[in-house]
Amino acid sequence: MIRRLLLTLFTVLLLATSARAQVTGPWAKILFLNGGDTTVDTSGDGSPENVVIACPGSTYRQNDGTAGNVFWIKDGATGCDATGWVILAGGGGGGSHNLLSATHSDTAANAAVRGAIIAGNSTPAWARVAIGSAGTFLHSDGTDVGWSTDGSALTTLNGTNISSGTVADARLSANVSLLGSSIDNSEITAATITFAKWASNSCATNEIPKWSGSAWACATDQTTAGGADAAASYLTRTAEGSLSNESNLGALTTGLVKITVSAGTATPSTAVSGTDYLATGAVTTSGLTQATGKLLGRTTASTGAIEEITPTTGLSLSAGNLFTAGAYTANGFTMATSRLLGRTTASTGAAEEISAGAGLSLSGGSLATSGALTSSGFTMSTARLIGRTTASTGAVEEISIGSGLTLSGGSLNTASTAPNVCQTGEFDAGNSGTSITLNWNNGASQLVTLTGNLGTLTLSNPVAGCTYRIEFVEDGTGGRTITFPASIKFENDTTPTLITTADKVIFCSLVYTTIGADGYFGWCTTNPLSKP
Fold first, then answer.
1. Sequence-separated (6 or more) residues with CB below 8 Å from residue 252
2. Global confidence as pTM
């Protein structure tokens, strides 16, 4: 008894000491339990956690607590100390809170969402499962639940419960009939039943279904087992009913059959050789009989029977081909040796023989020059060209090779790589890239579009005393730099700082000189120049 009183006194002292920070007395009462553990029922301001020392089962009322944050109880997991205080929610003893909230230690806190369900997860804890997409159903994989469209495991569904929707053909047995004990006409699409699906319909041997005009019925066929007509007694081009006279063709065992149709009636008869068809052997002139070596054609303007045409002198017909044969007459283009056919007069007419002119020869089917040509035949001195130096038309003239030009091997070349005068005109040298060569033979003024940082600028074929100009144009990007060769000397021996603004122009003037080492005096604009 004394030991319990001392323990109680010690606990009260500890409570009084630990409560100095937040909890204020007085304590309502002290309870004594078996085993020496002490439970207390007390109250004060503020939370008891880490402040009020008590044993499991003790209670605490927070005087300044808000709704749902008033009544506390000491959890048994931590023993007799100042931790493990749990607030009890209102309603059943404590404030209101969400179903899935931190208040419940066995739940994963989450808000309520329409259509969601609550299921145990792998923690394990009660957790929210979001609603599945349209057309899915709740599905178990044996461990967890979720939403799915996989119904492969639903092998015992009762088909009588399917009142709408469709079932795939693959899900139906081959013995299942979808049309019941009979098939309505509305269930058959026109022309969808093949002949192989027809029953005999009590038709006898060699009978076939025939349309009577109102219904199908069995009737006798005109052939045996699908072969030719056994009787073969008539030939028609229209239905039987429209024939007024059927002519038996059984007697026409030789010759050809001629069919005469009149007023819907087809009348057969024996064709007459040479009249209704072409017989074998020779054909008469009116029937295109031909003598040997003849052609068929028309020599008159009017229409009519075709005529035999005899090849003229100088032509022969052999093995199906028409050839020239021997010399032609004047009318048939007979020609002397080394002659051409053509026209030397302005008017039209028969072709004329043309002799090969002086200096020309005709041999082996080719027209070639033969020896030196006369003046009228373009005889030329060495290193000359043929052309016209006068405005009027006439005979071609010899043209001498000018100064600075050479004619060798059929090619006209410049005699020197360096002109003796400064070239004029502006030449577009194109895009710079990172390296470019400017040939002054192309012009003393040249345009360069800067499309990269120009690190190598080469200048070729300068003439001493000539002034050259380069117009550098920054492209739309801008920022392009230029590295000048050491042969260009600028004022104060200092390379100017050039602008790099997009679409602006840098104008440089160079004078080539032979003072000292050959090179250039140079000047460049350093302020932006816009395009004119």
1. 268, 270
2. 0.27
Residue 398 · residue 386 · CB < 8 Å = yes
CB distance 81 to 75 below 8 Å: no
**Of 129, 81, 82, 89, nearest in space to 105 by CA:** 89
Which of the 8 DSSP states describes residue 187?
A: G
Listed residue (392, 394, 368, 397) closest to 381, CA to CA? 397
Structure tokens at 49: 């956690």
Please, are residues 75 and 42 in contact by the beta-carbon 8 Å criterion?
no
DSSP code string of 134-186: TT-EEEE-SS-EEEE---TT-TT--GGG--SS---GGGS-TT--SSTTS--GG
DSSP annotation of 229 reads B
Low-confidence ranges of the chain (pLDDT < 50): 1, 6-7, 14-36, 91-94, 224-253, 278-285, 287, 327-330, 372-373, 375, 417-420
The DSSP H or E segment spanning 397 is strand 397-400
Dist CA 222 CA 226 (whole Å): 9
> Quick one: the chain helix, strand, coil %, rounded to 5?
10, 30, 60
CB contact set of 6 (below 8 Å; sequence gap of 6+): none
Q: What is the pLDDT of residue 250?
A: 39
Model pLDDT for residues 258-302, shown as the tens digit of each residue: 677 777 677 777 766 556 554 444 444 454 556 777 777 777 766
Three-class secondary structure of residue 9 per DSSP: helix
Three-state SS at 457 = strand
Pairing relationship of beta strands 445-450 and 467-474 according to DSSP bridges: parallel
Q: Tens digit of pLDDT for each residue in 127-165?
A: 999 999 998 988 888 899 999 988 777 777 777 777 777
Q: Where exactly are the structural domains of the chain?
A: 2-88, 105-145, 426-524
